[in-house]
């Protein structure tokens, strides 16, 4: 028998809230965390707004020792450790104090690029012949697996500790990787999630591609417009989301609170064929991924109550809705409720899937479907295929039973996870 896998802990460090209480309140109210950044204006970015977590009032000594903080200059590391340690505590778990590691607990925490500011600093030091000034932490701050290594050591995890990277699919992929490990009885608990650095060295490439909005610099909270006719590109964001996954047997033994159950999922690639490219999805692959996830979960497409889409506020949003319709065999009034949280914090790149999965699971706890902000003018191509009542503008009271969440990333890669309200057998 395979293990059933449940979610027992959540943590988040997002542009619209750090910590579950603040983040939940923001999602319920539709509050936006996107702000103007003068640094981007000085650097002559076309898009001078972004979603960046505010950690100025966070006591970092609650997460790092003074030794660890010395020379630490990696925003994604800060975000990931805050979210990860909060999720562990939220699950009722404590860092191991003994010399022996916890062989049943592991970490899979993804990132796209980590420590880019530290890497820039290192390049200048090396070029100026100041190698000795790099400090002893430059390597762990700039290696992709630095985040999982930090968290694994802080918590004393002795099972698999690793980092994945698959562009904007990273967070959802990490969750499915942890799910599979517990399901196959190779671990009892896995801390999973993802993080993304913030700043011009991360966002500059997207600005150069001209896929970020340029006409909202004086009105940042209205800039991210998923599903909208007036969407003009995604707003870059950053942060981290974290989940503690656990076998149902372990969770029951501890008497842990359960946010929901993962009942299935799927990961695939369009191979950059059939219309798929480095930056655009193969639509057939997207449909196949969603359908494979539903099959793996052992549910019917008509049982899905809510979809949390990738929906980045680009010209691809109508096609994503069409892909969901094709995958589910549902349209019009028969389509599930659908939402995108990116209107509230932008597209957090490698952290997007994990942050959005945290928000997705909170809908079970709150017995609500959080609203879509900035899409009062639903794209006409979308309203042709699904009824606009399925796109709630504000939070509605509704107790979802099954939610599908998907992420699609550069490289034509896809991931879809199916969450179920616990106790809804």
Automatic annotation (TrEMBL):
It is an enzyme of class 2 (transferase). The keyword Cytoplasm applies. Its EC number is 2.3.1.41. Residues 2-421 form the Ketosynthase family 3 (KS3) domain. One of its GO terms (cellular component) is cytosol. The keyword Cell inner membrane does not apply. GO terms for molecular function: 3-oxoacyl-[acyl-carrier-protein] synthase activity. Keywords: Acyltransferase, Cytoplasm, Transferase. It catalyses: a fatty acyl-[ACP] + malonyl-[ACP] + H(+) = a 3-oxoacyl-[ACP] + holo-[ACP] + CO2; (3Z)-decenoyl-[ACP] + malonyl-[ACP] + H(+) = 3-oxo-(5Z)-dodecenoyl-[ACP] + holo-[ACP] + CO2. GO terms for biological process: fatty acid biosynthetic process. It is found in: Cytoplasm. SUPFAM superfamilies: Thiolase-like. Belongs to the thiolase-like superfamily. Beta-ketoacyl-ACP synthases family. PANTHER family: 3-OXOACYL-[ACYL-CARRIER-PROTEIN] SYNTHASE 1 (PTHR11712:SF306), POLYKETIDE SYNTHASE-RELATED (PTHR11712). Homodimer. This is 3-oxoacyl-[acyl-carrier-protein] synthase 1.
